[in-house]
Amino acid sequence: MKNTKKINKRQHAYEVIRSRILDGTYAPGQRLIIDQIVKEVGSSPIPVREAIHQLESDQLIEYKANTGAVVLSLNEEVYKETLEVLAVLEGYTTLLSVSYLTESAFEELEFKNMGMKKALEDFDLEVFSELNREFHAIIYSYCPNQMIVKNMEQIRDRLKNVRKTGFLLYPKRAPQSVKEHDLLIDMLRRKTPATEIENFARQHKLNTLKAFNQKEG
Fold this sequence. Notes:
Layout (H helix, E strand, L loop, with lengths): L1 H21 L11 H8 L3 H13 L3 E4 L3 E4 L4 H22 L5 H19 L3 H16 L5 H16 L12 H16 L4 H23 L1
Antiparallel strand pairs: 1-2
Helix pairs in contact: 1-3, 4-7, 4-9, 5-6, 5-8, 8-9
């Protein structure tokens, strides 16, 4: 019974800290004050420390000498490398999902993409970015390889943690992304040859990297 309570407290602390990282309450590079979190979640230090170690494993937190636990910051080089890894994983995950996608899934994808078009018309790039995440999450939710899905979710959370990434940095990429989504939905519906789907999905993500590089130039 005690062990169950301990796990519940650790999970609660984990969810609170994680949500604050992802919604920007805790900014990249910010130090986490354990005593303060302990008071806020109504716990003892041990479950909070265990939650922080779990978030370190998720690569949302890092430990720095003489500082302690801080929210992970990504420099531009690491950001680019992370996008490259995500491109490979999204390509393969999309490939694995093809055989399992249902008509309901295609309708959800179309609905999300329509929402992205509307957000673009309203110049609401934050909503656009979130709908983009949800669009791809629908596809990989049908992937049978849960280990790949877990790795993708961790990477996507890491990128979301950096609030200045994605379409918020380069809105010129947004209209083309919507068009690529339309093409991807069509390819998935028609069950285009697997290698073509994988290559297209991978290039779709690499186009985001290309837009980022052009922003720099």
